[in-house]
User: Which sequence fits this backbone?
């Protein structure tokens, strides 16, 4: 089974992929951009994709949520991956030798205190795994990367230090998506992701939130994003506990339609374990 993810081999997205699917009979295929990942699923080049949608420190991954809204995909699972940033370097490199560290800007920001403490200059790169791959091709002992343990295995780098991020409880949430025709029949439906846009009138969002409350629907996320095709109009992404097959949810969505321009169910799936 082919599963697509964004990034180079060794990225955190690949770790999340294996956490959900395992490694048996799975071919993980990395793509440079999230847009490429979605296009691969559209063309059925892969059977499923996995994309990060939010992080416990930096918040939502807006570009990926917008892509999932744009495409006709369906979420069948959420995966929570603890992020363990490691300082990786070529063999023989010691911590005191390192002058430069390369990584994705978010990883560098999360490890800023460590870099300052050890007087290491941060150098932004496209992604964590890509930076590690480039380092492995260089014969240097004064440079390092911040990346996953998986990168050390792929690129033959040593782990100089582990868990170097400032906040230890650093977790990224991923969604596993498939085409609607490939939705498994027997998945447990405990949580739902959806997007809606309100009628253009005062108090429209408040009315919608009131409907969720009236039907006892527990929202776990609410995020607004602009609609590029409609200036100053917004789509609201929300997650809530419950299945789209629950009677209370069905009635809630029926009532919600009276106060919205659009409603799109992004998926209904088992609750992930943090």
Assistant:
């Amino acid at each position: 089974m082919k599963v697509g993810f964004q990034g180079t081999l060794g990225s955190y997205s690949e770790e999340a992929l294996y956490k959900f699917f395992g490694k048996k009979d799975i071919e993980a295929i990395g793509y440079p951009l999230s847009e490429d990942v979605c296009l691969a699923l559209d063309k059925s080049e892969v059977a499923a994709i996995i994309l990060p949608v939010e992080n416990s420190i930096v918040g939502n991954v807006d570009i990926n949520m917008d892509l999932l809204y744009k495409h006709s995909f369906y979420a069948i699972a959420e995966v929570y991956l603890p992020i363990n940033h490691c300082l990786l370097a070529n063999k023989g490199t010691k911590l005191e030798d390192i002058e430069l560290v390369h990584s994705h800007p978010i990883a560098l920001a999360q490890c800023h205190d460590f870099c300052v403490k050890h007087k290491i200059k941060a150098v932004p790169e496209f992604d964590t795994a890509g930076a590690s791959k480039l380092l492995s091709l260089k014969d240097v002992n004064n440079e390092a990367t911040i990346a996953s343990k998986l990168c050390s295995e792929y690129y033959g780098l040593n782990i100089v230090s582990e868990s170097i991020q400032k906040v230890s409880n650093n977790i990224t949430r991923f969604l596993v998506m498939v085409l609607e025709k490939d939705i498994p029949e027997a998945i447990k439906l405990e949580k739902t992701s959806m997007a809606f846009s309100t009628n253009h009138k005062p108090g429209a969002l408040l009315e919608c939130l009131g409907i969720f409350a009236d039907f006892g629907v527990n929202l776990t996320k609410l995020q607004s994003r602009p609609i590029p095709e409609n200036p100053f109009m917004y789509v609201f992404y929300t997650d809530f506990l419950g299945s789209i097959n629950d009677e209370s949810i069905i009635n809630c969505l029926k009532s919600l339609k009276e106060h919205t321009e659009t409603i799109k169910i992004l998926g209904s799936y088992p609750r992930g374990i943090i």
Summary: The chain has a mean pLDDT of 94. The first strand starts at residue 2 and ends at 6.
